[in-house]
Amino acid sequence: MIIGIGIDAVELHRIEDIIDNNPKFITRVLTENEHNMFKNLKKKRQVEFLGGRFACKEAFSKAYGTGIGKVGFQDIEVLAEESGQPIVHQSIFNGRVHVSITHTDKEAFAQIILEQ
């Protein structure tokens, strides 16, 4: 049974500005494992990666019904399967979490479905 659905979009130029001007934001949003993945990427992919993870965490908080605040960025970890498919590796939700991330040159989008 579906418990919640969340979606979020992020403008990538804003993420690029954050990477350049507010590096503390990166460690606030990304878990240690996500940050290790982030560090190994080239700049363009870093922007897409951070934008996608940020959108995932916002979408998760919407699907969970609380918004960011009661659910923190560090409460959700989005890693990748060997194939590259994103997977929610840890979260505060005890059911199944489905995730999809996509991006254009200008925006990143994420959708989360919580299933019990």
Automatic annotation (TrEMBL):
UniProt KW Acetylation keyword: no
Sequence ranges assigned to domain 4'-phosphopantetheinyl transferase in this UniProt record: 4-101
Compartments reported by the entry: Cytoplasm
Organism listed in the record: Vagococcus bubulae
Keyword tags: Cytoplasm, Fatty acid biosynthesis, Fatty acid metabolism, Lipid biosynthesis, Lipid metabolism, Magnesium, Metal-binding, Transferase
Gene name tied to this protein: acpS
Catalysed reactions listed for this entry: apo-[ACP] + CoA = holo-[ACP] + adenosine 3',5'-bisphosphate + H(+)
Function according to Swiss-Prot or TrEMBL: Transfers the 4'-phosphopantetheine moiety from coenzyme A to a Ser of acyl-carrier-protein.
Domain of life of the organism encoding this protein: Bacteria
Lineage, opening ranks: Bacteria, Bacillati, Bacillota, Bacilli, Lactobacillales
Similarity field: Belongs to the P-Pant transferase superfamily. AcpS family.
Name the UniProt record assigns to this protein: Holo-[acyl-carrier-protein] synthase
GO molecular function terms listed in the Swiss-Prot or TrEMBL record: holo-[acyl-carrier-protein] synthase activity; magnesium ion binding
Co-factor(s): Mg(2+)
